[in-house]
Amino acid sequence: MMSNFAREESFDIIEWPFNISENFDNQIIKIKDGYEIRIIQKIDSKKVLATKKISKTTYFHVRIDKNLSIISHTKELYECVTPIDFYIPIESAALSFYSDLYQNLIYEEDEKVLEFSKEFNKKYINKEISVPVYMPPIVSMPGICGNYNFKDTSYKKTKRKIAIQIKPKEKVPISYTKEIYDELSKYGNLFEKAVKYLNKFVENHNIFRTKDVCNDILQNKCTDLSQDSIRRFFPMVAYLYYSGPWSFIWVKYGYDPTLYPECYKFQDIYCTLNYKKVAVIDRPEIFEEIEKNKNKYLNSVYDEKHGFFNEKCIKYLKKQLHQRFFLPSGISLDLKNEDLEFDTFD
After folding, report:
1. How many domains does the chain have?
2. 28 with 102, same domain?
3. Transcription factor IIIC subunit 5 HTH domain spans which residues (predicted)?
4. Which domain holds residue 259?
């Protein structure tokens, strides 16, 4: 005979991902978002998470003695959505070493801990004897991969990279490649207009930024060219440096800025507060000071680290900008710069 609900009791239904052992109840740990299940009871042992899922099925919690009593019911199920693979055991020597270390540091009295620390330093730190390697026995963490069927993996076709980029002192390209031409000439009428405009522009600009071209378009009222569309055609007239004083600044084909000290005005200065990159020419007070005193602040020969700046110039920049700016010296930064939007082709 089936009775009505006897009394409401809270219970959870958990999907169990592997065989039930005698002490399986000790392998379940309640956490904020569900349950954590471990193969063995160690803090770094392999684990799998069971998270809450609303099921279409109703589950009953019942008690059967002489009668069948429905204690409660639920549609919630804690499901193991991430698979678990295997456990890698620790080497016995490492396990013994770290077990003893843990025991001495956690459970001994203060005086014994200090004594143990001195002995440990003598044996391992001072003599530089390496301690055993202890690799956490975790192959993958929950949440990294939810689908191990790699046949289902699809890759999006990446955008073609079409700009030439080099390091300072590498051979300067004298013209665009066939690959660049074939890719950009597909734009037909727009391609012809843009290339005609850019060829005229680089007659007076050996080095330029995106904003220099955009400003020129506005000043000359080139209404048939948009600022967004013109940028894709830069590789037809210029190449890029991807490091050094002129990183990600466009340079006319055949022109080598390392040979011309006047190119100092486009050298980079980085702000350490917000990692913003500016050129000398963008800071009028700095540009005017250096321009008036070229012999004082500039070298006639290019230096890989500082470009054309000499030591006096560097000291002046630090003083002028309260040491908030520094020069690029092989440091890679994630900069927000409009010229970085361009794809590149080595």
Report:
1. 3
2. no
3. 156-270
4. 165-341
